[in-house]
Design a protein that fits this description.
single chain; 537 residues; alpha+beta; Aminopeptidase; Immunoglobulin-like; 3 domains; 27 strands
Length: 537
């Protein structure tokens, strides 16, 4: 039996480790696993999509399920979950008949790292980046760089009586916002480690332009002055453009999921607006599927608009993956927030969202305690003095950002299998066409009647959502009759869409068929399992 490398839970994957794992999968399972380069990053790294399916026909004719991870550079746990899914499908195909059958029915497309450039920056330097930082050198603009030559890009704190941060009374390494009336210092300004372009001693500003790939999808896109990180236009970021091209080239896609890292949750649409913007039948089904995901993962189900502190108003994220997948493609789309360090240290999402500012600062203290107890992780660098060439005396240190943004890597050993279980459950709900009640009767001479019923036994409709009826690229169910001359209607007929769970259409043809002639009926839809039947006259 072929065997893949073990999933690494003692650290998060670097780019070369991902490539090694994918190459091993292609080598060990050549019939089930192929790699496609769907684009390249600005730094020249390939954007890799793994295809996992059985070799029983053209994958483009099977229902397709897409998983993408790590559009946000620091949220690297999504790669671990994606690689686990690949391993689970491939090795499971040899051990579990249910997984083998699923691969015969479904084509899985898995992009384990959507943002390899940003993630390599984060993992190698500990620096700060959402998805991509583009230098924009302007007067007094601070740009990130390793100024002390230790290979890291951390934070700088500079003592100043006007500073807006102060040490926490229980741990001076941890800085908290200064409140009105605070007059007992020391006080600090805190910056990313770096240099200041054309500094004249005035206020320091950010020199980089920050892109957020999860604000660059096509639905409800707004310009950057209204939606931070949106970039120049929808899909202007090359990674996003590449994935959009892939998606539109695969009309067989019936489900999509993205992995993120934040307070653990199952997330569903909408990302802006309200539930009233979703067709009621779709909302009901969306909640049913999402609750199943919550059951598998143990993460509560939330609409994106409610993924927030209890004290905050509903959020509105423009250009978001969820709304693009639902509104533009007519799919049920989910994101799984895999967690962060606070969840790993015992703080639930409900507790974090409902906490006061002071309570959330206590959670940060707990993170410092964990770091002190695990020095081998080197998650937090204690502040050390440095003579900055422009600012003078500063201290450099702080968190390597990905330790805060992700659950502890060892927790993924429990989280990843639960996420895979939901994905497989969602995939099994694909539309599935069958031909039943197929019969042929001779009317007179060589004139015969051919009858059949097209049945959808899948949980999902052939157009997936009710909104899918309006999506122009959703082609209808087609029925084709071959082997005999069709007299009463076309040999190829479009019959619209069929609802899930026993949506059906009864069909009848009059044909010219000699004794012993064989007619073949084929029924197909892009997002459904096709069916074929033969009948002898």
């Amino acid at each position: 039996m072929a065997q893949l490398p073990s999933i690494q839970y003692d650290h998060y994957y670097r780019w070369d480790e991902i490539a090694e794992f994918l190459d091993a999968a292609a080598r060990e399972y050549p019939e089930l696993f192929t790699l496609e380069e769907i684009g390249q990053t600005p730094e020249g790294r390939p954007l890799i999509c793994a295809h996992v399916t059985a070799p029983n026909g053209d994958p483009a004719n099977k229902p397709g399920y897409l998983v993408q991870a790590v559009v946000h550079a620091a949220e690297v746990a999504g790669t671990t979950a994606s690689l686990f899914l690949i391993k689970h499908l491939l090795e499971g195909s040899e051990e579990d008949p249910a997984i083998r059958q699923l691969l015969e029915e479904i084509a899985f497309y898995i992009v384990p790292r959507m943002n390899p450039d940003g993630s390599e920056f984060i993992l190698s330097t500990g620096g700060a980046i959402r998805s991509r930082n583009t230098p924009r050198y302007r007067k007094n603009g601070l740009y990130q760089t390793d100024i002390d030559g230790d290979g890291l890009i951390l934070q700088m704190r500079r003592e100043d009586p006007c500073g807006d941060m102060k040490p926490h009374p229980d741990d001076p390494r941890f800085l908290i916002p200064r409140k009105a009336g605070d007059d007992e210092g020391p006080f600090y300004f805190v910056y990313n480690e770096g240099l200041i372009h054309d500094w004249d001693g005035g206020p320091i500003v950010n020199a980089g332009r920050s892109a957020d790939f999860n604000r660059n999808w096509g639905a409800n896109w707004h310009p950057e002055y209204e939606q931070g990180g949106a970039s120049d236009f929808p899909f202007s970021q090359p990674e996003m453009h590449a994935l959009a091209q892939f998606v539109y080239a695969h009309p067989n896609l019936f489900g999509m999921l993205g992995f993120h890292c934040g307070n653990n949750s199952m997330l569903r649409p909408p990302s802006t607006g309200s539930d009233d913007d979703i067709i009621p039948a779709d909302l009901e089904k969306m909640k049913e599927l999402g609750e199943k995901g919550a059951e598998y993962t143990g993460f509560g189900l939330r609409a994106v608009i409610d993924y927030r502190l209890d004290s905050s108003k509903p959020i509105a994220l423009k250009g978001h993956f969820h709304d693009w997948g639902y509104r533009h493609l007519g799919l049920f789309v989910f994101e799984i927030e895999l967690g962060n360090i606070y969840n790993s240290l015992g703080v639930s999402t409900e507790e974090y969202f409902g906490a006061t500012d002071d309570e959330r600062r206590d959670y940060n203290l707990a993170a410092h305690t964990w770091s002190d107890s695990n020095p081998g992780k080197a998650a937090f660098e204690n502040w050390r003095p440095f003579e900055h060439p422009q600012l003078g005396r500063v201290e450099i240190g702080g968190w390597k950002r990905h330790f805060i943004a992700n659950p502890l890597s060892e927790d993924m050993a429990e989280i990843a299998p639960k996420c895979a279980a939901f994905i497989l459950d969602h995939a099994r709900r694909r539309p599935a066409l069958e031909l039943v009640k197929v019969q042929a009767t001779r009317v007179e001479g060589d004139i015969c009647r051919l009858q059949a019923t097209v049945l959808n036994t899948g949980d999902l409709a052939t157009q997936i959502t009710e909104l899918g009826h309006r999506v122009t690229q959703n082609e209808p169910v087609r029925v084709r009759v071959e082997g005999v001359e069709v007299l009463s209607r076309g040999a190829v007929e479009e019959i619209g869409q069929l609802r899930g769970v026993c949506g059906y259409r009864e069909l009848e043809w009059f044909v010219r068929a000699e004794e012993g002639a064989v007619a073949t009926i084929t029924v197909s839809a892009p997002k459904a399992i096709d069916a074929r039947a033969t009948v002898t006259f």
